[in-house]
Write a structure and sequence with these properties.
Elements: H1 2-30, H2 34-61, H3 76-79, H4 97-112, H5 119-125
């Protein structure tokens, strides 16, 4: 059951990455100031790092030995007994440009900056 859920999340995240690139490219076309261009580039790189870290963890979970998590990257907190994730209601991101910033800010504030969640937990919220 976990394997199917993770596979669905991976598929959904892959589609969202394509949308992110499309929206970010449109934003980049509007930038003229050197500082804005550098900031946008740094943001894209940061997003990609987070995305690929989460995808690596997710794909590790669905490897051949689904019960063996010893090779998966996990924080010390996550090595303890896993508990149910707290219910956090994020706004839905429907890939529209005008809702991206709201979603991004909400996710960063409510999920990404929390140090009690590891990459796998953050991916679940994503």
């Amino acid at each position: 059951m976990l394997k199917k859920k993770v596979n669905l999340r991976i598929h959904s995240a892959e589609q969202l990455l394509d949308s992110f690139y499309d929206v970010q490219s449109e934003i980049d076309k509007l930038l003229v100031d050197e500082k804005e261009i550098v900031s946008s580039s740094e943001y894209r790189e940061s997003f990609e790092d987070q995305y690929f870290s989460a995808m690596t963890a997710a794909k590790c979970l669905i490897g051949d030995n689904i019960g063996d998590y010893s090779n998966c990257p996990r924080s010390e907190k996550s090595k303890q007994k896993r508990s149910k994730l707290p219910d956090i209601k994020l706004p839905n991101f429907d890939v529209s440009y005008d809702k991206w910033l709201e979603y991004k800010n909400s996710y960063i504030t409510m999920i990404h900056t929390r140090d009690d969640l590891d990459a796998i937990d953050k991916f679940q919220y994503l």
